[in-house]
């Protein structure tokens, strides 16, 4: 069952046959108040998704040249394309979870059976985990708007997200990436 923060509060209260608690209402108020930051974070990731994913795949290839050689998991081109596609799908579901404030969409629609599928296809878990780690680092930099002109070169553009403390949102996004890493390890 795919939930958002509001559904989760209602289901939890329903399960205990009690009204939604004051603490849950306070959490929902905070969720709404921080809505623009959440939308900015999702936009920062979604706007840069292809770069985040292609940089992650390039990173794992640089670390392990055997991936693109005959017999490697990113050889021939169709396997490389599948790797890029899977990275984009995983990143998309991480942004869905971040937008909803709940990991159920990530678990139900993306991670359920992913490890078994990768094992059946012979996708190396170590390379997949490393790619997710790189995507995590890049995404968190975009959420915090800490990327710099020196790192971005002539293609640099600042997202201009709302200023303020994004540590809770960054921690939440990191937890979704960690969830993916845990699921495929």
TrEMBL record:
Q: Which GO terms describe its biological process?
A: photosynthesis
The UniProt entry lists the main location of this chain as membrane
Task: List the signal peptide residues.
Answer: none
GO cellular component terms given for this protein: phycobilisome; plasma membrane-derived thylakoid membrane
Residues bound to (2R,3E)-phycocyanobilin are: 36, 40, 73, 78, 83-89, 166
Positions bearing N4-methylasparagine: 73
Q: Which UniProt keywords apply?
A: Antenna complex, Bile pigment, Chromophore, Electron transport, Hydrolase, Membrane, Photosynthesis, Phycobilisome, Thylakoid, Transport
Q: Which Pfam families match?
A: Phycobilisome (PF00502)
GO terms, molecular function: hydrolase activity
Where does the record place it? Cellular thylakoid membrane
InterPro entries for the chain: Globin-like_sf, Phycobilisome_asu/bsu, Phycobilisome_asu/bsu_sf
Topology class, membrane: Peripheral membrane protein
Hydrolase is among the record's keywords: yes
Which domain of life does the protein's organism represent?
Bacteria
Q: Which family does it belong to?
A: Belongs to the phycobiliprotein family.
Protein name (database record): Bleomycin hydrolase
């Amino acid at each position: 069952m795919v939930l958002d923060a509001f559904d989760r509060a209602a289901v939890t209260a329903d399960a205990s046959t009690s009204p939604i608690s004051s603490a849950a209402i306070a959490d929902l108020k905070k969720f709404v108040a921080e809505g623009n930051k959440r939308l900015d974070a999702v936009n920062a990731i979604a706007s840069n998704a292809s770069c985040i994913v292609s940089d992650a795949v390039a990173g794992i290839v640089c670390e392990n040249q055997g991936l693109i050689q005959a017999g490697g998991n990113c050889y021939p081109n169709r396997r490389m394309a599948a790797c890029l596609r899977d990275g984009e799908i995983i990143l998309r579901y991480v942004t869905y979870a971040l937008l909803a404030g709940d990991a159920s969409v990530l678990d139900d629609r993306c991670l359920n059976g992913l490890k078994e599928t990768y094992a059946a296809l012979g996708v190396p878990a170590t390379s997949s985990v490393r790619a997710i780690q790189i995507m995590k680092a890049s995404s968190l930099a975009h959420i915090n708007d800490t990327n710099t002109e020196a790192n971005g070169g002539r293609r640099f553009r600042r997202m201009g997200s709302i200023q303020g403390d994004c540590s809770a949102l960054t921690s939440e996004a990191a937890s979704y990436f960690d969830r993916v890493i845990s699921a495929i390890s």
